[in-house]
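Page header: ASSEMBLY MODEL / three components / 846 residues total.
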Amino acid sequence: MLELDNVTVRFGGLTAVDNVTLRAGSDDVLGLIGANGAGKTTLFNAISGLVRPTAGSIRFGGTSVVRAPMFRRARLGIGRTFQIPQPLHGLTVRENLVVAQRFGTGKVDERRIAEVLDFTGLADKAGRDAATGLALTELKALEVAKALATNPQLLLLDEVLAGLETTAKRRFMGMLQDLHARFGVGIVIIEHDIETIATLCRRVAVLNFGRLIADGTPDAVFRDPEVMRSYVGNGVGGGHG
Amino acid sequence: MRRAYFPALLLAAYAGVPLVLGGNAYVMSLIDAALVIGGIALAWALLGNLGGMVSFGHSAFVGVGGYASALLTAKAGLPVPAGLLLGGVGAVLAAIVMLPVLRLRGPYFALAILAYAHIFRILATEWTAVTGGAAGVSGVPPLPVIAGIDFGGKTGAYFVILTIVCVFAWIYARVSASHYGLALRAMHDSEDATQVLGVNSTLLKAAMLLLSAFMTGVVGAFNAHYIGFLEPDYAFAGLWVTLPIVAAIFGGYRTIAGPLLGAVVVYLLDQLVFKTLISSGHQLILGALLVAMIVFSPRGLLPLLTRGRKSDAGT
Amino acid sequence: MSDLILQALYSGVLAGGSYALIALGLALVFGTMRVINLAHGELVLLAAYIGYTVESRLGWSPVAAIPFALVVVCAAAACVYGVVSRIRVDREINSLIATFGIGVILTNAILLVWSADVRSTSSAWLQEAVVMGPLYGMRGELVFFGVSLALMGALWWWLAKSWYGRAVRAVASNRDAAQLMGIPPGRTELVSFLVAGVLAACAGVALYSVGVIQPALGGALTVKAFIITVLAGVGSIPGVLLGAVLLGVAEALTVTLASSALQELAGMGLFLLVLFVLPNGLFGAVRRRG
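Prediction written out in full:
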């Protein structure tokens, strides 16, 4: 469903994403890992439309989206969360989802909103001000809820677990595990914790300095010598920040 | 503003004011002018609150609306009510020309709009063949007599401008309460966050600019017919920028009623007090008032005064 | 015909000098405070009127008015800083409105004090034609172009070498980091306003010396400064000079080839052109939304 072919993103002299070819479908739970600065978030930005690739093609559901503005990609079914939560200011949690539904799908389905609120554990906080009334865990849950409310076919999750403490993390993990089964949506997830990736994902892709160096089952990938080298070798001065 | 007050206010406005003050042409003319300013202030506040854009160029819409309607009625013979609407359309066209500046950030946008306002004034002054040049357009037809009521007179015109302003306030309220209103408010902080959810933020902002322009254009057209003539320095005067801004900020620009109430107070103050103090530079006091308000009470002065009486309803 | 165009180019370049000073003043304040001083054009105009007053009251050449203009305009600039620095909430927008208000105050104060009549210098020395080959320029134009270049050089030196100049650059690039390094942001911002005042004062006297002034000119000057920053960005002095010269030349060409009344439209045309064709300005400096 999502087809990336030879996607390259260059910022001036810096190549953040280097000739990446990748596939992701609604069946996938794909983990995307790599050292800091390996280009993971940039890749997400290119897929969701925040950034225009310097070269390569991006197709979704058969149509090319590389020229499509962000909002159109969202309506086509690409959902995305931000690493640093960006709740819609001045609105309540519920209103956040109403906007997502209304503009991501064209109409507001109250049942779906209730379902999403329930699933992400925000049902009793629906009336709170999204920007000021939520703790970090709830903000992150809202990120997922907002994206879900657009009825996506593919969900890009950017480090949703970062910064959470253990109990919250475990709860979130449970939620993420159910996500694919419950909503039938394909997932591409960026995470740093190898264990999380191994538990959640059936497939793992590894980026290193913008290049895709591995793409396969967790077992295969974690035993790949180049992958191991990229982690150990990147200890000193690796990545572009 | 509490919903319960509406019927009483409308009654006071439509019936009370004409009954009590209708005989005094001078007072009615003050009120008419205050409502004109109020309409522009409302449109300005709408662009600021919903569109997230501060404009220093609304005089462009006043002037274009006025000229469009004046020329179409005086030269092309169209009926005045059509002229009012087409004045709004003219302002919308002017706004469409301004659309490229939407992509500019706050301060740049404000300056760009200011630049446009200058340009429209120059066009009006130089394009003599169409606009009559510096001499302007004279003989702009007044509002018509319908069913025995002379809408061209001070009190008749009052009903027209009052209705225009009420309709615009209603539209503002509907948009604000709609899903579009939610999205627009969210856009202030992060357009990306809304776009990623499917909101075409550029289109929404453009729509707010066009709506604000339309409203201002209609009011400008009304004013042209009310005054009876137009010339570039008047139609595009800086006062059309300054007064509505002072009015909106004074009355509290985050509310819908604020700009209207502010307009009445500020305009009356300006005409009755400031002008007697410094007749040709009275704008100076307006400017000073504006600066003082922004520094000491950016949310407006009226909200400060009423806060003691009602519980703060999310101003 | 080509003589006319050459003359227009020449006049345009000369005008560009003063325009550059105006634009640099605006850019300097924007750099340190992220605030656009909508009253900047009025400060320039104030200096111009000081030039008129010195000439009409004391009989001196407007050039001698520069010290007076410096004092008055810098004091006014400090007042603008005083107002802007008190704004805490929604600073970007509220400072726009506040400086707009200050601009209205200044324009009307000028109107009250000096009336709406159009003024220009009566100095024969400044108005005398200086002929260079086929090109004709007023001595005033040449003198003040030289002054502008000198000032820009001084500004460049100041930003590069002096303590406050480098402080200004530091605050402009990263306010918090600068503060951590011990640079007092408030005082630095005041300095940037004062320097902008110096530039505005010279530009204003220049304006009076080579052209005509009237109270309504303030807003137009701010708009011109803005157009130059759209063309050239706020990043470099040579860039601003280039943008200013471009504006000057465009105006001169419009006056020569079309009509003098359309002079203001020239800048607008350039502005729209850049917006449509080069959305990042000539030097990629206009910031766009995402």
